[in-house]
């Protein structure tokens, strides 16, 4: 039933900006070389299985609105198989290279640890066949330690070590599966690694248990020879009131505290950045600065809503600024852009899945072209460099000299009777450069 779900759709192709075909790319031309690299290799885009194939269109006020064949009954072995087939067929129809999954997204429901492991193992065997059949790759896998009621108080931060051990079993199996499937990264999103009320929460114990967990995951990665990157995905809250992986700065402090700053990077999600009161480009810039920019979940929030709406990206300006940060970071090595985005509940048809992804792909591709144009033009980058140019002069160097004290710097100011002249930050000029970009 599933292989035929997308039978009426052709593979999406690049037709250029004048195309009138809603099922064509206007900007994403995978073989076009931008700043010395093919677009496909810059962007490494992925489809997520959870929103696009598992979510039935339900919300807290109502049932699922979608009528995909695999949603009609229980999530048994047949339904899970159809869902996997449909997912990989869809990625091929979009002509994108990658997909991403949680363990529970791709398997049939199973109770008990033995049955759970067996069901997941069957799914992984099938995914291996499907990857070969459709010529697609895995950007990352992750274990879901937040949906099952057992995880209501967290996985690695649960007060009950038996829950922690269950989580260890899921993560071990999912990390090994990701390795076997050739995954480029392994993600940990700590959805319930936080608290609902501080009244019942011992933060110090929870953080130490969480730090121990992450160290064990890294150790296991090396033990099995997985060469991909381990990624933490920051989010400030939802479902918990407070999530420990609040944002990139908090995650970096956590990694340093537990000795993992050279082992683990971040997977930045646009909507999580904005939920945290930041801009998307702020989170990317922070990760670039710390050298921990791993991968990106591509989506957007709604500026009037305070929750995680996971809509498809559609702001060319936001993605221009984001791509500028990714390019400044030197681009991705293992990472890519994963569409952690879902069509709206009223977008019930198979074609809506295409419209969501095609729009997102083109928005990101256009962001890349515009950011590349700004980098090639050089005016903004030159201005930024000049603005800090005096730091390589004599005073700047002296300030950073190991032997220099606060008093030395203060004496310098007094001795030279310093009277620094104000210089414009040229914010509006900078903003105009972005707005006037032609690509
Ligand atoms: C939820 C997160 C989740 C992670 C993977 O808000 O975005 O989907 O990406 O667990
Ligand atoms: Ca995400
Ligand atoms: Ca999200």
Write structural notes for this entry.
This protein is of the alpha/beta class. The protein has two domains: 13-377, TIM Barrel, CATH 3.20.20; 392-435, no CATH class. It contains 16 helices and 14 strands. Helix 10 runs parallel beside helix 11 (316-328) and helix 11 (316-328) crosses helix 12 (350-377). It is globular, with a radius of gyration of 24 Å. It starts with 12 loop residues before the first strand and ends with a helix. The mean pLDDT is 97. The site of one calcium ion has 6 residues, from helix 9.
User: For the record, what CATH class of the largest domain applies?
Assistant: Alpha Beta
Indicate the radius of gyration in whole angstroms.
24 Å
Quote the distance from N terminus to C terminus: 42 Å
Weakly predicted, low-confidence segments: none
Ligand identities: D-xylose, calcium ion
Outline the biggest β-sheet: 8 strands, parallel, barrel
Please give the domain count: 2
The SS-based structural class is alpha/beta
- The coarse overall form would be globular
Q: What is the assigned CATH homologous superfamily of the largest domain?
A: Divalent-metal-dependent TIM barrel enzymes
Helix content: 40-55%
How large is the share of residues in beta strands?
Answer: 5-15%
């Amino acid at each position: 039933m599933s292989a035929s779900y997308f039978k009426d759709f052709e593979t999406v192709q690049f037709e250029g900006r004048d195309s009138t075909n809603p099922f064509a790319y206007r900007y994403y031309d995978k073989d076009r070389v931008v700043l010395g690299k093919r677009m496909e290799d810059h962007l490494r885009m992925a489809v997520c299985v959870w929103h696009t194939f598992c979510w039935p269109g339900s919300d807290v006020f109502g049932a699922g609105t979608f009528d995909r064949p695999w949603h009609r009954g229980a999530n048994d072995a047949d339904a899970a198989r159809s869902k996997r087939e449909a997912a990989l067929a869809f990625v091929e129809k979009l002509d994108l290279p990658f997909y991403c999954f949680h363990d529970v997204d791709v398997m049939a429901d199973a109770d008990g640890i033995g049955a759970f492991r067996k069901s997941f193992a069957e799914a992984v065997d099938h995914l291996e066949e499907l990857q070969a059949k459709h010529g697609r790759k895995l950007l990352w896998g992750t274990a879901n330690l937040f949906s099952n009621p057992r995880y209501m108080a967290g996985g690695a931060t649960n007060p009950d070590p038996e829950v922690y051990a269950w989580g260890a079993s899921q993560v071990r199996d999912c990390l090994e599966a990701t390795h076997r499937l050739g995954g480029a990264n392994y993600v940990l999103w700590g959805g319930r690694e936080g608290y609902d009320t501080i009244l019942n929460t011992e933060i110090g114990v929870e953080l130490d248990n969480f730090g121990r967990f992450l160290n064990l995951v890294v150790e296991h990665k090396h033990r099995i020879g997985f060469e991909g990157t381990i990624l933490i995905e920051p989010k400030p809250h939802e479902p918990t009131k407070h999530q420990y992986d609040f944002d990139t700065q908090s995650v970096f402090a956590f990694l340093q505290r537990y000795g993992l700053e050279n082992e683990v990077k971040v997977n930045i999600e646009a909507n999580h950045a904005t939920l945290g009161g930041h801009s998307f480009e702020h989170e990317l810039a922070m990760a670039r600065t710390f050298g921990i920019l791993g991968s990106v979940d591509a989506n957007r929030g709604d500026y009037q809503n305070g929750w995680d709406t996971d809509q498809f990206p559609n702001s060319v300006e936001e993605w221009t600024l984001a791509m500028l940060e990714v390019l400044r970071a030197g681009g991705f090595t293992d990472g890519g852009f994963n569409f952690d985005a879902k069509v709206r509940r009223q977008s019930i048809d198979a074609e809506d899945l295409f419209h969501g992804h095609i729009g997102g792909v083109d928005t990101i591709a256009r962001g890349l072209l515009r950011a590349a144009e700004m980098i090639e033009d050089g005016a903004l980058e030159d201005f930024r460099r000049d603005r800090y140019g005096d730091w390589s002069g004599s005073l700047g160097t002296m300030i950073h000299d190991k032997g220099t004290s606060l008093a030395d710097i203060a004496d310098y100011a007094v001795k030279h009777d310093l009277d620094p002249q104000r210089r414009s930050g040229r914010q509006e000029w900078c903003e105009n450069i972005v707005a006037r970009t032609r690509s």
